[in-house]
Specification:
Layout lengths: L9 H29 L9 H22 L3 H25 L8 H20 L6
Helix pairs in contact: 1-2, 1-4, 2-3, 3-4
């Protein structure tokens, strides 16, 4: 690691964790709402495995957010895994299944920015979090 990454100010770490946790809770609430409204197949155009993955994010988004609020490295690590896989799944759904584009999908635009925030800040904050 680059030396200056070890010196991320504590207030920066706190704010990144709070913002990421809040946005993960928003995602979790969306997945819970979809699940309660439509069950495991909330998107009838998507294959079963993709619907199951999106439903599982109700749990994984919540866990990542709770670990981040607790100042745990596991929260940052889980948030990175969730965001990378969710972004890949949504890009696949947009381009491969719906034959759409990024410009036509504001939800994918927001998800891409959030993934960039999580993946871009984690190397800076991770060392300041506890095991």
């Amino acid at each position: 690691m680059i030396g200056w990454m070890h010196h991320t100010p504590r207030w920066t770490v706190i704010w990144v964790c709070v913002i990421a946790a809040a946005l993960l809770f928003v995602g979790a609430s969306t997945h819970v709402t979809d699940f309660l409204s439509h069950g495991l197949h909330s998107h009838d155009w998507a294959p079963g495995w993709l619907n199951l993955y999106w439903s599982s994010l109700a749990l994984f988004d919540t866990l990542a957010a709770m670990f981040l609020i607790g100042g745990k490295r596991l929260g940052a690590d889980l948030a990175c895994v969730v965001m990378a896989t969710d972004l890949a799944a949504n890009w696949y759904a947009t381009y491969g299944l719906q034959h759409s584009s990024l410009a036509a999908q504001p939800g994918l635009q927001r998800l891409t920015v959030f993934a960039a925030l999580v993946l871009g800040t984690t190397p800076f904050i991770r060392r300041r979090l506890t095991n």
